[in-house]
Amino acid sequence: MSEFKNIVYEKRTLVGGPLKKTEINRGSRTVDQLDLEILRLLEDDGSLPFTKIARKLGLNESTVRKRVASLLERGVIKKFTVIVDPAKIGYNTIAMTGIDVDPPKLLEVAQRLCKIEEVRYVATSTGDHMIMAEIWSEDSKELSRILSEKIGMIEGVKRVCPAIILERLKF
């Protein structure tokens, strides 16, 4: 980013305060403070039109559109999505589930978990469990069935440790 652009950006007052001249290097990608401000607004409301983002940041709509396109192209933004309240669509029991597997089967098991409809989130991890998964079910009886008949039957699964979520406080 050129010094001129940094100076122009520094004069704007953005959502998080005045823009600094710094660029943030994260791995092989560079994002600047303006990119971060656009990302913050989109994280709060992914449906926010570019015109409203531009208005809030004192930019042209085309600048926002080009920046978002660049963030998408570089993989900074993975996708636009919605956050669903599971209870409102009949899923009243949500469990964060740690899953231990035979190490050579780690990726195979994780990929199989991704194909189970009730499994809404899958990540490999370090720590207490090798895989963490979020499972949505109608009730505890259905959760037990999913754990035993769908997850427990996957070749390589050694242990399944569910923890039922009482209340989600932050998304």
Question: Which labels suit this protein?
Answer:
about 170 residues; alpha+beta; Alpha-Beta Plaits; 2 domains; four-stranded antiparallel beta sheet; two-stranded antiparallel ribbon; 6 helices; about 25% strand; disordered N terminus
Structural class: alpha+beta
Indicate the radius of gyration in whole angstroms: 21 Å
Q: With helices defined by DSSP (H or I, 4 residues minimum), what is the helix count?
A: 6
- Strand sequence of the main sheet, in spatial order? 6-7-5-8
User: How many runs of DSSP E, i.e. beta strands?
Assistant: 8
User: Largest sheet, described in full?
Assistant: 4 strands, antiparallel
Percent strand: 15-25%
Mean pLDDT: 87
Describe the global form.
Answer: elongated
How many structural domains?
Answer: 2
Spatial separation of the terminal alpha carbons: 32 Å
| CATH architecture classification name of the largest domain | 2-Layer Sandwich
CATH class call of the largest domain: Alpha Beta
Secondary-structure topology with pairs:
Elements: H1 3-10, E1 13-14, E2 17-18, E3 23-26, E4 29-32, H2 33-44, H3 50-57, H4 61-73, E5 93-101, H5 106-114, E6 119-124, E7 131-137, H6 140-151, E8 157-164
Antiparallel strand pairs: 1-2, 3-4, 5-7, 5-8, 6-7
Describe the structure.
By secondary structure, the chain is an alpha+beta fold. It folds into two domains: 3-73, no CATH class; 86-164, Lrp/AsnC effector binding domain/regulation of amino acid metabolism (RAM) domain (Alpha-Beta Plaits). The chain is built from six helices and eight strands. Strand 6 and strand 7 form a beta hairpin. 20% of the residues are buried.
